[in-house]
Design goal:
The chain is an alpha/beta fold. It is 56% helix and 7% strand.
Length: 788
């Protein structure tokens, strides 16, 4: 900005401004321009001082005057743009900045100084475009700024933020690193990097970056909030709670803070406190969609199912819900429908969500879990959904046949201990322990090296019974899939075993990266993962007969014995005598969750109760803690002619005393029950099962074949009812079963832990050999002895 002649007042105005005496500076500048109306330099001091005092309107008028006096001065137009940007006049500011760009661009030849000015202006243009939500155009402007001035830290920062706004989180990292290297305030950069890492699932890096940001700005509430979330993602729940409480101490009325606190408390198993936090959020902002979803989840977990339906339905219907919030609410509402046995309603919601977000893994897992329980789906329809899941969520995986292990690699592997890696989030009190502990405890350590890749935050979460069961523990919660895959490769794992399937905490994305020569899925899900990158599904011929192979993305590998060995929980006690002898009536029971109850199953149970006079049906599960669901269930039986008093509902955990009062257990169909079937047999309670749906519908039959009681396996609904009636009609025979069944189970392959371990180890060895041949063997039974 220029003036025709220097005036002594300029030095005085500069000194006042430097001393932050903005009001005297403004007054003297105004007095001067009243006498010298054409002095653009003095008008510039009016702009600066008025702007510093927050008088945007006065600054705007003065800036416009400067531009009128020196229309070719790019700095004057830049200042005008800054004022308009400050006043929120974004369209006008954009026009002004672009005009300044044109003025500077017209300078020929370009100089280093003009390049720097162009960079600053491009950055300002990008800032306005970003604020307007024009992220693509903003990205181009920021990219131009850093091209012109490669050491411009703020422009690099803005470029990284633009990538984030476009959902390009991996691409955001390099610009943010450049911003840090070129002097942009590190607290801002580390905070942004933390957000990037969280989106990428790199929760450990997120925690590190946000911790550094917080050390620089200890009262930054956004950083406190995000670091709390990162801590929760790592399972550091006490730390997460402390951080969010620090935020709430600074911002007592922060709605998101109360919601996050509720989420942390819910994760810690403190439902009452969590509900209070959510209520506080709702009192501050009634109808907050995030709070409604959180309250719906809390109510679902607490078995307040009617309340869960209300909260989630309100979230779905809320006009203020963002598209992402609406989809999240719809998914949770769909899962609730499935819990209540409303499978058609669940399917309709899931289909809407997956049509909108076909690549969202968490949505697919919830849908596939519900789908396995859908009573009216054919195996072909179910498999088609698993195939759709893989096609949407994973790039095509090369078939293993095209990538055999080098013979030398096989020979080397066979000359040393084979390294087995188990991947799970459930090295805890989870029911998986009843089947995993028998295998880990009996691995032949002279032949096998064992690693646990625990999707957990650290050793304190591991059930003590697992201590010493693996030679190497790797805690992978918060690590990216690529990081875990590299860890598996670096560890030299030969066979990597998935123990989760599509259940919570799974790391199927790691398996998709093929980090080990052989990948196996076993035990945790009962059905295919849908992921063809996993070579084998470890099973047996009763759980997955040959005709069911087409319904697995993996190749079934069938052991010549049951594919599970069971270790009972301590303290289960003796089964006791047959209850019917003292009660005078037969007690049937199912300890399965309500998602497996459907009209066909209830029809069979009602027919059974009608044919066994005086009998009662005990339904004991967590879901039956909901009074409304109990009433609805009894009403469904009443509509079938069974009085409500014959349907006894409740929830007791552990269920050993419940089973001591049961004469006959009833398996569910088309999705069988799980661990409760083993528990029934161990408590000497026989059960009847219907073998039907591939995978999840044949578990009950596989267990009964393992214990040597195939006569309790039915293949039609009528046969299911008839077999249960026959058991109930011969109390002396049922009493004999009661007296002998635990011993039968103890002597069966179902509790032969060492024999099971040897069989699985042989399977692992043969799997690795089969990969050396470049094939997937159809089962554990080799077709040609020469292949060995």
């Amino acid at each position: 900005m220029s003036s025709t002649a220097a005036h002594p007042i300029y030095a005085r105005l500069a000194q006042l401004f430097q001393e932050r005496a903005f009001a005297p500076c403004l007054a003297q500048a105004q007095a001067h321009v009243a006498q010298h109306a054409q002095d653009a330099m003095a008008w510039g001091w009016v702009v600066r001082s008025a702007f510093a005092l927050g008088n945007g309107t006065q600054a705007l008028r003065a800036a416009q005057r400067v531009c009128a006096l020196v229309p070719g001065d790019a700095q004057a137009w830049t200042t005008l743009g800054d004022v308009r940007r400050h006043l929120g006049q974004l369209d006008e500011a954009l026009v002004v900045f672009q005009h300044a760009l044109q003025l500077v661009s017209a300078v020929a030849p370009p100089t280093g100084q003009s390049q720097a000015v162009l960079a600053v202006l491009s950055n300002k243009v990008g800032d306005v475009l970003y604020t307007q939500g024009q992220f693509e155009q903003a990205h181009k402007a920021f990219a131009q700024a850093v091209h012109l001035a490669p050491r411009f830290g703020q422009a690099w920062f803005h470029l990284g933020i633009a990538h984030m706004a476009l959902g390009q989180y991996a691409e955001a990292q390099p610009p943010l690193a450049q911003a840090l290297a070129h002097g942009h305030p590190p607290a801002q950069v580390q905070s942004a990097l933390g957000a990037v890492f969280m989106e990428l699932g790199a929760h450990r890096q997120a925690h590190a970056a946000l911790s550094q940001a917080l050390s620089l700005q200890p009262e930054d509430t956004m950083v406190l909030n995000n670091l709390s979330i990162a801590s929760q993602n790592l399972g550091l729940l006490a730390e997460a709670e402390a951080l969010i409480r620090r935020k709430l101490a600074l911002l007592e009325h922060d709605v998101s803070g109360w919601i996050n606190l509720g989420n942390v408390l819910r994760a810690q198993g403190r439902p009452g406190e969590a509900a209070a936090a959510f209520d506080r959020a709702m009192s501050l902002e009634p109808g907050n969609v995030t709070a409604l979803i959180a309250m719906g989840l809390q109510a679902h977990e607490s078995q307040a199912l009617a309340s869960a339906r209300r909260y989630l339905s309100d979230a779905v219907a809320s006009p203020s819900a963002s598209p992402a919030q609406k989809l999240d609410a719809m998914v949770e509402l769909a899962s609730l429908h499935a819990t209540l046995g409303e499978h058609e309603g669940a399917e309709a919601l899931f289909m809407q969500v997956l049509a909108a977000r076909p690549r969202e893994r968490k949505y697919w897992s919830k849908w596939l879990f519900a789908l396995n329980n859908h009573p009216h789906k054919s195996p072909q329809q179910i498999m088609a959904q698993y195939q759709a899941f893989e096609s949407h969520c994973f790039a095509p995986v090369p078939q293993p046949v095209a990538n055999p292990l080098p013979a030398q690699g096989i020979e080397m592997a066979m000359s040393r201990r084979l390294h087995i890696g188990y991947v799970s989030a459930d090295f805890t009190q989870h029911a998986v322990r009843h089947f995993l502990l028998p295998l880990l405890a009996h691995h032949d350590r002279s032949r096998f090296e064992v690693s646990a890749f625990a999707n957990m935050s650290g050793p304190t979460e591991v059930l003590p019974a697992y201590q010493g069961m693996a030679e190497h523990w790797h805690f992978i919660k918060g690590m990216t899939d690529q990081e875990v895959a590299e860890l598996v490769r670096a560890s030299g794992v030969d066979v990597l075993v998935d123990l989760s399937g599509q259940t919570g905490g799974n790391r199927l994305d790691v398996f998709a990266l093929k980090p080990a020569p052989v990948a196996v899925s076993w035990m945790g899900f009962g059905s295919t993962t849908g992921l063809s990158a996993i070579d084998y599904f470890l099973t047996d011929r009763h759980a997955v007969p040959a005709q069911d192979s087409a319904y697995f993305a993996e190749t079934p590998w069938r052991l010549d014995r049951p594919y599970l060995a069971y270790r009972p929980a301590p303290g289960m006690g003796d089964p006791g005598p047959l209850p019917a002898l003292a009660n005078g009536h037969v007690t049937f029971a199912s300890l399965s969750r309500s998602i497996r109850f459907n009209d066909g199953l209830l029809d069979a149970w009602a027919q059974l109760l009608a044919r066994v006079p005086g009998s009662v049906l005990l339904l004991d599960s967590k879901n039956m803690g909901d009074a409304d669901l109990v009433h609805q269930t009894q009403a469904r039986f009443a509509a079938r002619g069974i009085a409500a008093e014959r349907i006894q509902c409740g929830f007791r955990s552990p269920p050993w005393d419940v089973l001591r009062g049961v004469d006959i257990s009833l398996d569910c169909f088309p999705h069988n029950s799980g661990t409760t079937l083993f528990e029934s047999l161990y408590m000497a309670v026989p059960y009847v099962t219907l073998s039907g749906r591939p995978g999840v519908g044949r578990l009950g039959a596989a267990i009964l074949h393992g214990v040597g009681r195939p006569e309790w396996v039915a293949h039609t609904v009528q046969e299911y009812v008839d077999k249960a009636v026959a058991l109930a009609s011969d109390l002396p025979r049922l009493a004999q079963v009661r007296a002998s069944l635990r011993d039968e189970m103890g002597a069966s392959p179902l509790m032969d832990e060492a024999g099971f371990a040897r069989s699985v180890e042989e399977a692992y060895t043969c799997m690795l050999e089969s990969r050396g041949q470049g094939v997937r063997a159809e089962s554990g039974f080799w077709p040609d002895a020469a292949m060995r």
